[in-house]
Design goal:
The protein is 73% helix and 0% strand. It has helices at residues 3-15, 26-35, 38-72, 82-101, 114-138, 154-192, 198-229, 239-259, 273-288. The longest helix is centred in the middle third of the chain and has 39 residues, at 154-192.
């Protein structure tokens, strides 16, 4: 091989093959798996921005308070913080981007019961068009009257869209109630079953963990939905909105992260899952009858 060819090959190995020198990392592998899923992609587009948005909104009041104290102590000329203003403005831009992103729709809810999902679907059929109309009207992208007899009030559109979202959130508690029943039935069958292995118990623990994580996320959404559904809201301090939004964002990220974690070990022989599920379904049918 000629000298130029060797130099080119060395350059190719150094640049294009640089990732071969990166040490193996379980956390990095986990992150790649998570971002390769729909929930991971959705997190990058919305939840990561939500985390950044509410983090900035939490930091901004602290910066303002620090600026006021420094002004009082004679350490700065003005009792205001330009950084806090920038953080607030950037958080507002992120809010616009999130709303624009929802123009393309969102994934349907998972592990849902048929009736509750249908009702939630209908609530979203109301929520999304009203939210989109609100955004377009609030930015003066569409006229206030469509056609000449149909008046679009941005405040009313926002309030009614949030009321539809509140219906979805409340229905999610009903969904969680049914999920809890199924988890309790599965727990009961595992206790009765013979040959139950560690993987079965671990799977049940993970399902309970996901259940409580969703409960926290939905509980954080409830006060937000109620506040924005009312003309005067329920909070006089917007800091509460930031806190609940931050809690929801963290819980959502935690759910997706744990869902993409690799099992500690490969599952060995376990109980007949199909038979177990059949027993759960039969017991559920008897309870409903």
């Amino acid at each position: 091989m000629s000298h130029p060819a060797k130099a080119l090959a060395r350059l190719s190995d150094t640049t294009l093959g640089a990732f071969a020198f990166v040490p193996s990392s379980e956390t990095l592998d986990h992150l790649v798996r998570y971002l390769s899923t729909w929930s991971g992609t959705e997190f990058v587009l919305t939840r990561s921005l939500q985390l950044i948005q509410y983090t900035l909104k939490l930091i901004a009041p602290l910066l303002v308070a620090r600026a006021k104290l420094q002004h009082r102590w004679g350490l700065r000329k003005e009792a205001s913080s330009s950084v806090a203003t920038s953080f607030t403005s950037f958080a507002s831009v992120i809010g616009d981007f999130k709303m624009l992103g929802r123009f393309w729709g969102s994934p349907p809810p998972t592990r849902a019961l048929l009736t509750i999902e249908r009702l939630q679907g209908w609530s979203m059929l109301v929520y999304y068009p009203l939210e989109h109309l609100y955004y377009l009207r609030a930015r003066d992208l569409i006229p206030a009257t469509i056609p000449s007899t149909f008046h679009l009030n941005s405040n009313a559109l926002a309030m009614w869209s949030c009321r539809a979202w509140a219906v979805y959130v409340i229905l999610q508690f009903a969904h969680l109630r049914e999920d809890r029943k199924l988890l309790l039935m599965r727990e009961k069958h595992l206790k009765k079953g013979k040959g139950v292995v560690i993987e079965d118990k671990e799977d049940l623990r993970n399902r309970w963990d996901a259940f409580w994580n969703e409960f926290v996320a939905n509980s954080a959404n409830l006060p937000l939905a109620i506040h924005w559904s009312l003309e005067k809201g329920i909070f006089t301090n917007d800091l509460w909105l930031t806190v609940f939004g931050f809690i929801n964002a963290v819980a959502t990220f935690r759910s997706g992260w744990k869902a993409t974690a690799l099992p500690a070990s490969k599952p060995s022989s376990s109980i007949n899952v199909a038979a177990c599920d059949l027993g759960i379904a039969s017991e559920k049918a008897e309870a409903d009858s």
